[in-house]
């Protein structure tokens, strides 16, 4: 058995030369140890490798890592290379302590089943889970998954991310696609469960067969696939991220549909519980899809308070709606104006310069549309 001390590494070979590391005998990285792998890593047998320190992959070319089934210790596996890396588990499930992504380029493509006993830390880089693969967070603590919520420094899981969840807790699933990531929130599940979630940029046939509302453009839609080990016998409050994602510009045009065997009625998310997530009113057991509504009116995003200018927030064709509700928030999230029966009473002259956020609820018969948008107010000098 080899015991590596701090700072010991496998030196990178010159570009173009073989950078493979093959482990065919017992290999141990001690706590505090640090080993850097510049290219391929092939562990020939299970139970001959244990990592209690830090194993860093720094590939600059496409590379491959082969992990046989087994427990590879509680240490860190850090991906910090700049090119694609294939992570292959050829037999049954491999188990790691901590998986950390710090990749400035490329992605990790997972083939097979990988369980994370400690935590998944997504600073930058993408983990692509094969359709037949499994990335399981075997730690029930909500903080076992962390990610960098930034459109510039993308960090997410493409494909299904699977987490063990406890009843009553709150879990984030940073899942996405090649365009952007769309973190999804599981809030207060009714029962302990194992839940898998993936972002889906296309509308499934079961949605199309029901048909959306008349003012919805079904081609411009996206959703989240939710799989439960309890087969739909568990419910939770779904939450959508509108913070630093491609969803933010569309926030004023979204109608939310819940995918289940019994319920496909429009059920929009409620309120603004915090700066990052909009949480559904009702507990659901299945997937969630968002449709880009084609509302045939435009609302101003800027009001200049000067002589003769219109200073109220006007909803065109108000007679089309049975009721209109408006809530306006300042940048601290505090409600500064609220009306349950709105009729153009909001007047910018009563508010100081700044950016405000609003939620406008348009009710018509048994349906409603929600617009969430912002408005800038500037007073003339």
Question: What topology emerges from the helices and strands here?
Answer:
Elements: E1 3-4, E2 21-23, E3 27-29, E4 34-37, E5 41-43, E6 49-51, E7 54-57, E8 63-66, E9 70-71, E10 76-79, E11 85-88, E12 94-111, E13 113-129, E14 134-137, E15 145-147, E16 155-158, E17 161-165, E18 170-173, E19 175-176, E20 184-187, E21 193-200, H1 205-210, E22 216-228, E23 237-241, E24 254-259, E25 269-270, E26 277-280, E27 287-293, E28 302-305, E29 323-329, E30 335-339, E31 354-364, E32 367-379
Parallel strand pairs: 1-3, 2-5, 3-6, 4-7, 5-8, 7-10, 8-11, 9-12, 10-12, 11-12, 12-13, 13-14, 13-15, 13-16, 14-17, 16-19, 28-32
Antiparallel strand pairs: 17-21, 18-20, 20-23, 21-22, 22-27, 23-26, 24-27, 25-26, 29-30, 29-31, 31-32
Biggest beta sheet attributes:
19 strands, mixed
Counting structural domains, the number is: 2
Our count of helices gives: 1
Average residue-wise pLDDT: 79
Question: Care to give the gist of this entry?
Answer:
By secondary structure, the protein is an all-beta fold. The chain has one helix and 32 strands.
Describe this entry's structure for a reader:
This protein folds into 2 domains: 3-293; 306-379, Immunoglobulins (Immunoglobulin-like), CATH 2.60.40. Helix content is 2%, strand content 48%. It has 1 helix and 32 strands. It has one helix at 205-210, and strands at 3-4, 21-23, 27-29, 34-37, 41-43, 49-51, 54-57, 63-66, 70-71, 76-79, 85-88, 94-111, 113-129, 134-137, 145-147, 155-158, 161-165, 170-173, 175-176, 184-187, 193-200, 216-228, 237-241, 254-259, 269-270, 277-280, 287-293, 302-305, 323-329, 335-339, 354-364, 367-379. The strands form 4 sheets. The chain has a 19-stranded mixed β-sheet that branches. It has a 5-stranded antiparallel β-sheet with strand order 18-20-23-26-25, with no helix packed on it. A 5-stranded mixed β-sheet has the order 28-32-31-29-30, with no helix packed on it. The longest helix is centred in the middle third of the chain and has 6 residues, at 205-210. The chain is elongated, with a radius of gyration of 25 Å. Mean pLDDT is 79; it is low at 1-14, 213-217 and 268-273.
């Amino acid at each position: 058995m080899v015991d590596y001390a701090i700072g010991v590494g496998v030196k990178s070979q010159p570009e173009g030369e073989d950078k493979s590391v093959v482990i065919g005998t017992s290999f141990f990285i001690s706590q505090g140890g640090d080993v850097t792998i510049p290219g391929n890593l092939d562990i020939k047998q299970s139970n001959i490798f244990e990592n209690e320190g830090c194993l860093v992959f720094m590939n600059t070319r496409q590379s491959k890592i082969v992990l046989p089934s087994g427990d590879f210790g509680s240490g860190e596996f850090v991906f910090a290379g700049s090119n694609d890396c294939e992570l292959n588990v050829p037999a049954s499930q491999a188990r790691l302590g901590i998986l950390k992504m710090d990749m400035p380029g490329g992605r990790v493509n997972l083939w097979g089943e990988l369980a994370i006993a400690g935590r998944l830390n997504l600073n930058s880089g993408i983990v692509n889970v094969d359709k037949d693969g499994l990335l399981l967070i075997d730690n029930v603590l909500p903080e076992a998954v962390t990610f960098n919520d930034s459109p510039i420094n993308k960090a997410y899981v493409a494909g299904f991310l699977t987490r063990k969840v406890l009843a009553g807790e709150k879990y984030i699933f940073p899942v996405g696609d090649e365009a952007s990531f769309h973190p999804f929130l599981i809030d207060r599940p009714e029962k302990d469960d194992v839940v898998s979630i993936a972002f889906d940029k296309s509308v499934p046939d079961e949605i199309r067969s029901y048909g959306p509302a008349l003012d919805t453009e079904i081609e411009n839609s996206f959703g989240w696939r939710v799989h439960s080990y309890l087969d739909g016998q568990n419910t939770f409050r779904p939450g959508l991220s509108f913070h630093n994602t491609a969803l933010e510009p569309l926030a004023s045009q979204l109608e939310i549909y819940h995918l289940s065997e019994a319920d496909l009625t429009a059920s929009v998310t409620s309120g603004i519980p915090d700066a990052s997530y909009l949480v559904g009113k009702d507990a659901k057991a299945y997937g969630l899809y968002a449709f880009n509504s084609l509302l045939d009116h435009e609302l101003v995003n800027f009001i200049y308070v000067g002589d003769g200018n219109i200073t109220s927030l006007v909803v065109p064709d108000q007679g089309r709606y049975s009721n209109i509700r408006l809530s306006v928030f300042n940048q601290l999230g505090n409600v500064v104006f609220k009306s349950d029966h709105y009729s153009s009473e909001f007047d910018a002259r009563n508010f100081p310069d700044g950016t405000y956020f609003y939620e406008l609820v348009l009710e018509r018969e048994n349906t409603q549309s929600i617009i969430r948008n912002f408005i800038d107010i500037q007073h003339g000098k």
